[in-house]
## 1
Amino acid sequence: MLKSDVIWKIISGVLFATVGGMLVVIVIQVLGRMVGQSIPWTEELIRYLFLWTVNFGMAVGMRHANHASVNILYLVLPRKKWIEVVHLVIYTASAFVFFSLLSYWNYGMTMRQLRSGEISPALEIPMFLVSLPLFMCDLLAVVGLAQSMFLDMKTRERVSSCDQGEASDIIEEARV
């Protein structure tokens, strides 16, 4: 097993834990409301777990190129190898720039929260612990992008050929 595979297995475990944690905390919140005793920290914890779930899921989505994309221009252009290459370059470069900038900004926010000593209102945990996974997930998205575009030829071919399943079929039928 490759080291990178171990990293993605750990991230899958983190995703399982965050989704499971949300489920448990929601059940606690519902039971608390049923007995007339609202538990104030549950809403805040669910919000943080959801934020982490979305960001770790985004990183995994970049690893497998399973995210929303707008390829209509590439689907209506003729099937030429150079168009596929241009599409792959634009896709990779734009995602790399986006996640690099996002990583830079989230790193800055995390460091400001660490220096300021900001704490969350209900859980009273340091806020940098809440935003640290955002920075980490942005870096993981860049790593996932690099792996999917440079190491995983199957994913690279799927992206470069704009294989969108039903969308491609619908466009092809419209051409005829």
Note: Helices lie at 3-34, 40-64, 72-76, 81-116, 127-151, 153-160, 166-175.
## 2
Amino acid sequence: MALIQSDLASEEVQGLTQSSIENKLFDGNLFLVGPMGAGKTTVGRHLADLLGHAFIDSDHEIERRTGATIPWIFEKEGEAGFRLREESVLAELTAMSNIVLATGGGAVTREQSRNYLHQRGTVIYLYTPVAMQVARTSRDRNRPLLQTSNPEARLRELLEIRDPLYRSIAHHVVQTLDGSARELAQKIIHLIQTNEIK
């Protein structure tokens, strides 16, 4: 697995033209995993736009199919019930072709979900330090696992548990330390073009 720092020079990214992307330098699925606040949905939308792939957010798809919010599902079915729904949705989504899929932070907690992701596409782990997660999620009330008196401690606990799971299925680890989501997506695609991600 490759560890990729998001520190490519901007001039290296400027060569990324629409015509070069349209040459289909990357066929296949890209699956983004990582903690809450990693930017999976935002980066995923940019990647899909640049690659000409369809974009899907698994949490949004679960909400669309159930007609309920994630917090409501957690409240009524618990995390275990939600993860079963998530696994079922991932089974279908990962079987599609040429998509960019942003997964929920806990998608890796079930073994079968990990298998679907690892075997059916290229998994990119967007590694994000806890301090950055806190800054990005502090005002978000749509994250049931963070409705606690100490969200930072909860994020640290979750990362300690989940980081090994993310790494176990990731084909590549990308640090999301600086730059905009668009720049990070461009840098990832630049790496695909130069065959540093395969």
Note: Strands lie at 2-4, 30-33, 54-57, 99-102, 122-127, 172-175.
## 3
Amino acid sequence: MHFLSMQEGAFLEKERRKVNKINANAGKKWPWIIGLSIIGVVAACVVTVKVALNNPVEMSKYGMQSYHNYDDNVNDIINAQIGFDQNYTIAFLTPQVTQKGTVIVYEISDKANRAISNAKVEVVLTRPDTTGFDLNLSSPTVSEGRYTFNAVDLPRAGRWDILAKITIGEHQRYYNLKADTRYPEITEF
């Protein structure tokens, strides 16, 4: 049998106390970790809500109306578009969309190629990501079915949506064209 010396005994006792101390504290840290995790999740939720309130979602203006109204009446809008397309033809004649002096021109005719000069044409130039720079165009000059709006200067370079609502009697049609002042000759339907 081997007996421990005093130094070895003291060393082993010291190590046993360290282990007991570590084991005694092991159960006390988990409640703190769980509590801090819960507080962290709640703080992240608060930050998310605050960021969302400071940066609201822009309402879509497709169809020049709120998306709720558009969604509620989508079947009527589609039927009106079909009726319009069966009776009329519209052409976008603007040669290019530039930041300075853009002139928006539409030509409207019936299926027999007769010019229509009694249509109501509403146009909005808008950025695809915000409604803050919307330009409402009204009172076009009308000549032989060509609806020409006064020249406008766009406040920013880049992508623009050209939204139009054409109404002729009971027929109505929405158009959404996409343009970019950096590539003025290109317009996307």
Note: The CA atoms of residues 80 and 170 lie 8 Å apart.
